[in-house]
């Protein structure tokens, strides 16, 4: 028969609350079901009394054996059951029709009723699981009383026409129909009513199963009673059928267990997919809602056929335990007494990750109290252990079957499920950490550039007006070098915390190094400007670091978009780029805050084009080398030239070196530029040598060249390839470039000096210029900055500086070169001071290669009797 054995209210309405989450059954429906159960019990009692009066009790000595055998038969029928949950109600498809028809054929009503009640209710009462004992007792009485009454009435009506077993068969078939009908009624009372068509199909299937069981019982009875040793034959068939059933049941159980494992894994995967993937929600991505595990808990409860499954998980990084209950709710006492830490639970004291089985009759006192608080007679408990910590626990309380407890198959299944859950939780934590790290800055915990772009793009797709505000913290390089980069990191973290305290809910990101970005939604440019000023002022406040106070500055720039934008300019990357341009403009402003203007974009675009087109310009001949001659002042001879780079851009025309050389240096292309200029210069020196002209060429070096340990090797290889004496190659460098990283640049300079290459200090008199620095550098000449040379005629101070540099250089055996010589007076003054070489517009402007050759031919004469040429400069 198909038998209703318990009822549940509606599924729990799980809210977003933290521990604990529990199922709540509607109290009104519970009261209605209690009244309904009392009516069923009264109906069962009245039916039993009426049936007892209708049928006659015939005592026989065989009853002393038949009664216990029937009770055992009902128990065996209960053991061989198939448990199913339909519409929140548990059903048991059992074989109770077999002992029922045997009872109808062999025993009085009272004996069969007692055997059925003993088998049905005894186990529930013994296990303290009699939550619906009143309802079940009434149904058990009706399942026996009605079949006996129907069988008696049918036998009386068809006496002499049908066989004796016809009445018991008809009566037996009424038993599953009664059970099914009352179960549907109970389901309707509890608010889970089944549709009429579905109920009719269930009744037909119930009748079919009942007819099959009744037929088996009747055939067994007839064979045993009418055939010699027939009972042995029936027993053998029964043993074979039971063995076959158990084998089939085992296979079905394994299949259901595999399906359960698959369902649990899919549920975990789906809950992981529905977790927050948006960068703005990733701060607590590991802290997923306990409600997402409800399908997992319910699936475990269904598979174990348990009255209740409790999931206790540590989803919060702080270690707080969240609780989810599937099935019957936990008592209030259990919720109030739940330990705050999993390790304090007496059911989880043993180490390892094995399943523990507890029963109140066998457990220690502490465990028994814990089970009673949970309202459970029996519990399977398994901890969920990750790689290095306790992640949670799974508890299964009280198997639904009336008398059977959890078996070894249930233990194995729960152990496997727990392993899957622990692995899934570990994987989700790892995945959450990877997602968090992908979108967050490891130093400050703020969003990184990727996270900021994703979050801002989502807001732009919603059509909202967004302002990207970029704030840069300016920390002096000398401070980082003096205190170490750890202190610089501490200042960056402190700056981020200050800005967070100043903001409300606006997202803040660290883009890189000392640069931050804020997304302001639905703000005007005036509001963005005010916010930028506030943030800049906050990060510019002094930073107390232990016993010292460090000063810092800040600049801010912002760019805005409008929802009407449909072109790529509304993209986040463009806004970040515009904000960066505004920050660069703010560095030159007075208040340190600038908003983006279209003209800034043109400047940025021009710089971007120059950087990206530089290599192509070198290959296509747009980059040229011009030469500015140098003349020895005492002898008026041209002794060399300085190689100066020029760019004839097809769109922007002739570009000043001050515009594109810093860009080339900042982007790391300066090595290619230096190599190109040096190659052109050495080629020109080789041409002069072939013509008998011994002149040197000076090439400017950047700080990147001085930090390249392989640079001297490349210079030596170029000199050897062109077969040029190293003294005809001069490298000009600034003291600031050397002192930027002296530990790396000085070894490079010493190697170049050892090769015989001439080293000159350019722009001497500015920057770090001092006797102490000059003595450290392995240089051969100094070049007086042109600003002092140009001011000699009008400023006596500049003249004193020039005279001091000339005297200082000569005292150190260094040649002195004066730049910016533009008039005869300056030349004469330099000659009087003893300056060695002059360079400037008085002699010549920088000339292209062709014009330089023309200029040289006009100022040279061939020595008599020799093949060599002497170069003279016509200064008058």
UniProtKB/TrEMBL annotation:
What CDD domains is this protein classified in?
Answer: EAL (cd01948), GGDEF (cd01949)
Show where the EAL domain sits.
Answer: 607-860
Q: What is the lineage of its organism?
A: Bacteria, Bacillati, Actinomycetota, Actinomycetes, Pseudonocardiales
> Which protein is depicted?
Bifunctional diguanylate cyclase/phosphodiesterase
The source organism is Saccharopolyspora rosea
Transmembrane intervals: 32-51, 63-80, 100-121, 133-153, 165-190, 227-248
Q: Where does the record place the region Disordered? A: 1-22
Q: Superkingdom of this entry's organism?
A: Bacteria
Q: Which UniProt keywords apply?
A: Membrane, Transmembrane, Transmembrane helix
The record's annotation in SUPFAM superfamilies points to: EAL domain-like, GAF domain-like, Nucleotide cyclase
